Amino acid sequence: MGETLSVRQIRVQTVDAWHQIASERIVALSFTPTEERFRATFAQTVLSEDVSMHDLSTTGLIVDRSEKSAAADPHEDVLFVLQRRSSGVLAQNGRDVHLTPGSLALFDPSCAYSFDHSAGNQRQLTLRMSRRRLGVDDRTIARLSATPIPGDHPQSVLVQAYMRALWKRGAAASRDVASASGDLAIELIGSLLSSLLSSRMEAPRASEYERMIRYIDAHFERHDLDVAALADAHHVSVRNVYNVFARRRETPAAAIRARRLQHAAQLLHDHPRSTLVDIAIRSGFGDAATFARAFRRQFGHSPSTWRREPPARRATST
Known about the structure:
- The chain folds into 2 domains: 6-202, Jelly Rolls, CATH 2.60.120; 208-317, Homeodomain-like (Arc Repressor Mutant, subunit A), CATH 1.10.10.60.
- It is of the alpha+beta class.
- The chain has 14 helices and 11 strands.
- The strands form 2 sheets. The protein has a 6-stranded antiparallel β-sheet, sandwiched between helices. It has a 5-stranded antiparallel β-sheet with strand order 2-5-10-7-8.
- The N and C termini lie far apart (66 Å).
- Helix 5 runs antiparallel to helix 6 (175-202), helix 8 (227-234) crosses helix 9 and helix 11 (276-282) crosses helix 12 (288-299).
- The protein is elongated and about 80 Å long.
- It has helices spanning 15-25, 67-72, 131-134, 138-144, 154-170, 175-202, 208-219, 227-234, 238-246, 252-270, 276-282, 288-299, 303-308, 311-317, and strands at 6-12, 30-33, 40-46, 51-58, 61-65, 77-85, 88-92, 95-99, 104-107, 113-117, 122-130.
- Helix content is 48%, strand content 21%.
């Protein structure tokens, strides 16, 4: 990274040009566009020898840093990204994390990684920092790369705001102020990472499956609760959600449906005068017909028939 503060914005219209710019100014990468017309903008602010910021905007594409590229193009720095627009998936070290506007994530260019930006209309703000200045060891970096960073964590909120302000004002700052601002960014992110690591070591978290089941229990009445919503809520990819449930020989859709039907059965018992439309809506189903079909498959009777049966017989039906 350069020794003086500098700002430069470059617009490109071909993947080849983007490959050259990104490989020269960030790390060696390969790109596969997912839209017919490619457009990208690169802007960089060098704050000090140890810190630079990159504002990247692109149409849809897949970004890949292979193991071969990482070995041939080693880097001492680490990268910390703030997703500003659209969504994507960062994958590294066998993990992936779903990024939505406001999401933060750490990744290590000394190892292979990939970004799925096929959603298009991307914008990311990336902070490139010296590994030795960050204050966390390589094992911690490997453990925290491509893992969800809670957006409501107090230090996460501070880092988000600081990165936005630093990009907005860094270009106009004097060299000394820019350097001091970069140092503070390193301190804030290092503190955030250390805090996240400590909390995970001190209080083992519930499994992903348990967290997702609790989320379903709390939100099953939402008509838009589906696999994608579960992924967004837990900052992981849709594929990751399917894998979590597959380990239990379940599917997320079946878990959501079962919780809705359980609630509907209770409503049928507790509110005998409620219409099936009302019960369907209150249980998260979009309409009464969908609810009735799902109920019959689960319990072997229509909701109306089940409601008329004595409680003892209902128990044998379930």
